[in-house]
Structures are given as structure tokens and as C-alpha cells.
């Protein structure tokens, strides 16, 4: 059972992906409003 060892890694990946999505959404909003 390696689940307990993999949990922090998957949680970190989830946080990173959410941050990336937030950055992409912010950039798209800036481009839409700026353009």
C-alpha cells in the first residue's frame, strides 16, 4: 500500500495544476479586456 506515500505528491500536483489554470485564466481575462 503506497497510497500514503503518494498522497503528498498527488496533492502537490493538484495544487500546481490549479495554480496553472488560475494563471491561464487570468492571462486570458487580461487579453480579453486589454484587447
From TrEMBL:
Q: Which UniProt keywords apply?
A: Membrane, Transmembrane, Transmembrane helix
Domain of life of the organism encoding this protein = Bacteria
- TM ranges are 12-33
The entry's protein name is: Inner membrane protein
GN (gene name): yidH_2
Amino acid at each position: 500500500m503506497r497510497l500514503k506515500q503518494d498522497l503528498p505528491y498527488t496533492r502537490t500536483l493538484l495544487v500546481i495544476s490549479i495554480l496553472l489554470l488560475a494563471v491561464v485564466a487570468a492571462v486570458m481575462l487580461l487579453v480579453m479586456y486589454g484587447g
